[in-house]
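Figure S7 source data.
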Amino acid sequence: MPRIVEAEVITTCPGRNFVTLRLVTDDGVTGVGDATLNGRERAVASYLEDHVIPCLIGRDAHRIEDTWQYLYRGAYWRRGPVTMSAIAAVDVALWDIKAKLAGLPLYQLLGGACREGVLVYCHASGETIEETVEHARGFAREGYRAIRIQSGVPGLPSTYGVAKEKFAYEPAEKGLPPVNAWSTEKYLRSVPPLFAAAREALGWDVHLLHDVHHRLTPIEAGRLGKDLEPFRPFWMEDACPAENQDNFRLIRQHTTTPLAVGEIFNSIWDCRQLIEEQLIDYIRATVVHAGGITHLRRIAALADLHRIRTGCHGATDLSPVTMAAALHFDLSIPNFGIQEYMRHTAETDAVFPHAYSFDDGMLHPGNEPGLGVDIDLALAAKYPYERAYLPVNRLEDGTMFDW
Ligand code: KDG
Ligand code: MG
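Tokens for the predicted 2-keto-3-deoxygluconate complex:
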């Protein structure tokens, strides 16, 4: 029986913060799990160091399900992003160890590949519609088959999803939370022309996606979904905040634009009503924030009963460890839909060497035993934690709003 003898939490900032759990067994086998919660990194690091690691030392590394139940039921205080990200890190590190001990890439332990590769979508953005379309055209030339499009909103100084420097959108900023301004009216006017221009320039063979980022009321979302229908979007994401899941029934009554939700969900209970009542088409819960591979498989199985597919969150605040775990998961489940993929910077890729690779619009996790990703401890140590926050959002009259 492989016993866990060492556990370490590494917080590193190669351009942005990542929290990684590294477990070692008595035979010297290592496993890594991502525990990054953007803007609240230290809370998860403390949860792991102060409350989880003391319970892990000496445990049988093979008992993944039992360890998951021990950490979930055993905490008494269930769910929440901090708890579930910490559990996810342990879960993924244990799957990594098990697959390495088996000498197999993780997807083989999850039932084997259901497809040849994982369809991904990338992010195109720009201050203007022309810039966004040009950015998207570049991705299409690189072979991407699915592209999220976000453009600056005329009259607003900054907009969610628009990269400051062309490479990638990175919303967390050092210092105190930046304040963004928002106008629903201006935004709603700006999206249909963006889709019209993108279809005109890119044609109909590429999937186009859009993220509303939790900012509309159900009836506003219904109207936007309806306005976008002629352009056949792949999905409209996070149309409303999903605390009140009933909201999505109203959106559904008004549009056939497919709906995706769930990047901030952390358990099956957050998804249950949306899935069981078929109020969405894609569930975006992800390995790191929703309790790891063990729990995400349960969510996917529930979704499959209702013909809902997955579309896991994959922004750059999810480390390459989560990306690798997501790809093994995506490859192995029957109801995979699409995977978000924002490329990390060269600094991040160097700290987390990985086997996954992109080809012809798809990612593949590679065939190394385990997850196929590691952390370079010496390099990680060169980038100490730097406090950073996600923005907050206010209406133009100063009212606090959803970001
Ligand atoms: O940390 C917040 C980001 O992960 C989020 O803003 C990205 O909405 C997002 C997306 O769809 O990638
Ligand atoms: Mg999103």
